[in-house]
Amino acid sequence: MGASLSLVPLLDYFARREFAAAGLSPGAVTLPYPGDGGEATCTVHYWASTGEPRLPPLLLVHGFGPRATWQWRCQVGPLSRHFHLIVPDLIGFGGSSFGGDSAASPPSEATQAAALASLLDALPGMKGRRVAVAGTSYGGFVAYWLARTAGAGRVGPVVIASSDLLKTAADDRGFLKRAGDGWSGVEEVLLPAEPAAMRKLLEMASCRPPPPVLMPDFILRDFIQKLFTENREQLIQLFKGITVGTDKFPVTPISQEVLIVWGEQDQLFPVEKAYAVQSSLDGKARVEIISKTGHAPQLEDPTRFNKILLDFLLATHKPDPSSNGASQ
């Protein structure tokens, strides 16, 4: 009987309800697959505030793991009172897909950023509008790429949350040392295929992980099956192919105002990396460390996280003067 129990649909229902209560509606657009040069397409699923923007637009970009509704469920309510929200599933995650039967390669951060730019242009009233962007974990890599390549005329203030833009092979070795013996690579934990790896991910990602009694193997297997199985090999290639912070796309200062938010007890990307990222951006970015949280402070202490975001964005993300009377 226990093996048939699945918490995923229930948790998905509550996450979707938070989005609906915040006035967001789901949608999807089919776009040319960026950089393919052929006939491949991608479908980008998203949630967005209804209608054309009357408030300053804000793009929320999720990280590895569950779909966007799970990762931003505690933010959409408070943020929707001040911003027109666009919350997509990145390509290969959640409801977003790519390639079909073609040989399109897995998306890079450049691909993801280009798809998000095309998504923004496809939404009502958003073509050419300046948008703030907040990215958590892998979403921070995408947010940085989008902000730097699109420029300040298109992308306004940037929030980088729990995202080590300077990740190196040495960081991966440090990760495996913190994880303990028995792991062949970082992706084995970040994209778990077995209950032991899922349990380790929860332990490392959370300041207060669920006690073992609440994490029996059959529940963890269900989470793995429903959240980490589809596209797993492609996502491993995506993770191994990250280019932000490498010689292919070194981290350099950008003209936008930047906020860096980090959990003090983050074991995936240790808190000292927040200051390394700040230094790489000429030391001008504001850094906020949230105590008693791990890799997902937006979920472990949403009240504090939301206040930090709102204080920053309300001060920096002004209405686009080119918009038709949009007001904050």
TrEMBL record:
A GO molecular function held by the record: catalytic activity
Superkingdom assignment: Eukaryota
Domain AB hydrolase-1 stretches: 58-306
Gene: LOC127766612
Protein name: AB hydrolase-1 domain-containing protein
PANTHER family found in the cross-reference section: HYDROLASE, ALPHA_BETA FOLD FAMILY PROTEIN, EXPRESSED, SI:DKEY-122A22.2
Gene3D superfamilies noted in UniProt: alpha/beta hydrolase
InterPro entries: AB_hydrolase_1, AB_hydrolase_fold, Epox_hydrolase-like, Meta-cleavage_hydrolase
Organism in which the protein naturally occurs: Oryza glaberrima
